[in-house]
Design brief:
It is built from nine helices and twelve strands. The chain is an alpha+beta fold. Strands 1-2-3-4-5-12-6-11-10-9-8-7 form a twelve-stranded mixed sheet, with helices on both faces. Helix 8 (about 230-245) packs across helix 9 (about 260-270). This is GNAT family N-acetyltransferase.
């Protein structure tokens, strides 16, 4: 039976799924992570590995917050983030990353920074880019979906990308088995795309989250000795074409503002900025 809340915050469950997805549909590209997780888990805490909190005003779901390893605000303004922060401070920090639209993350963080202490890193300006049509340049014909037999070549490239991007290895603290399972899962889903040469990955990218209308790409990487050759431009054009034909019609990603080579590549492919994300990492 559905638990009713006229006003206030409570964990959402399966009976709230339709209302929550309607909330994410207010900006389906920005909210693709939350919508993907909801569709995947039906908002069951056991499957989420955490909870999704909803804020209700006069019986209407007005905002939400994914609370797991990732803390992700959904359609949350300053009043919403203040309420979510108050609830978060009542339980202590359990998240490793705060990520989402810049204003919502900054607002959350204004309440959490002092009690939670200094993070490992903050990235406040991450342009959120969207490609909703065919790529503007010719796709690299050698970029293809990864297959199970590619795992031995793909896995070291995934570890290298993660370590370079986040400054820590995904295998740290005994997490290698879980990360290996994730890479295998992406291959199984058909969400891993790469250019293989002589048994090595020279370009790769993955779909991290997807709904029937939107897909978010992460893990874009070119092997260091081949950078500057234009592999990212043709590779991302291929990824856009493959994702739009196989998974979802709208492709998005977010990039660090200081990564000018990547931003130039995405611009040539046809990505356009629609928002700005921020990430706080512990």
């Amino acid at each position: 039976m559905r638990t009713t809340t006229r006003s206030g915050v409570r964990p959402l469950g399966a009976s709230d799924l339709a209302e929550f997805l309607a909330l994410t549909d207010r900006d389906p590209t920005v909210n693709v992570f939350a919508a993907h997780r909801a569709r995947q888990t039906r908002l069951e805490p056991r499957l989420l590995g955490g909870e999704v909190w909803g804020r209700f005003v006069e019986g209407e779901l007005v905002s939400a917050c994914h609370v797991g390893a990732n803390l992700v605000p959904v359609e949350a303004g300053p009043e919403d983030t203040a309420v979510f922060a108050e609830r978060l401070l009542g339980r202590g920090r359990t998240v490793s990353t705060v990520v989402g639209p810049e204003q919502a993350v900054r607002s959350l963080w204004s309440h959490l920074e002092a009690p939670w202490g200094p993070p490992r890193e903050t990235r406040w300006c991450q342009p959120h880019l969207v490609a909703s049509g065919p790529p503007l340049v010719e796709p690299d014909p050698l970029v293809r979906p990864s297959r199970a037999e590619d795992f031995a070549a793909l896995y070291p490239a995934c570890v290298a990308m993660y370590t370079e991007e986040l400054g820590v290895s995904p295998e740290l603290g005994g997490a290698a088995d879980g990360y290996r399972a994730r890479v295998r899962q992406l291959i199984q889903f058909g969400w891993s795309f790469a250019r293989y040469e002589a048994g090595r990955v020279v370009f790769k990218a993955e779909v991290a989250f997807a709904t029937p209308t939107n897909a978010q790409v992460q893990g874009v990487w070119v092997t260091p000795e081949r950078r500057g050759e234009g592999l990212a431009v043709g590779g991302m054009a291929a990824v856009v074409a493959l994702v739009r034909s196989r998974i979802s019609p709208v492709v998005s990603l977010y990039v660090n503002d200081w990564n000018q080579p990547a931003r130039r590549a995405y611009d040539r492919v046809g990505f356009e900025q629609t928002a700005t994300f921020s990430t706080v990492m512990y």
